[in-house]
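ok new one. same drill as before - structure tokens go in, u give me an amino acid for every spot. 45 of them this time. try not to just spam alanines like last time pls lmao
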């Protein structure tokens, strides 16, 4: 459950700071998932 809540918060934060839709959210999500949290590698993403 903790991982689901974390993913929800990441996507919610990304949608709040981007206005163009999905393609604009990708760099924000990539930075959060790969660099900060290290939940997934860039190759897997």
């Amino acid at each position: 459950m903790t991982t689901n809540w974390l993913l929800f918060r990441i996507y919610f934060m990304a949608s709040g700071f981007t206005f163009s839709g999905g393609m604009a959210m990708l760099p924000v999500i990539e930075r959060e998932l790969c660099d900060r949290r290290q939940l997934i590698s860039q190759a897997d993403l």
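The chain has a mean pLDDT of 88. and btw The two ends are 22 Å apart (CA to CA).
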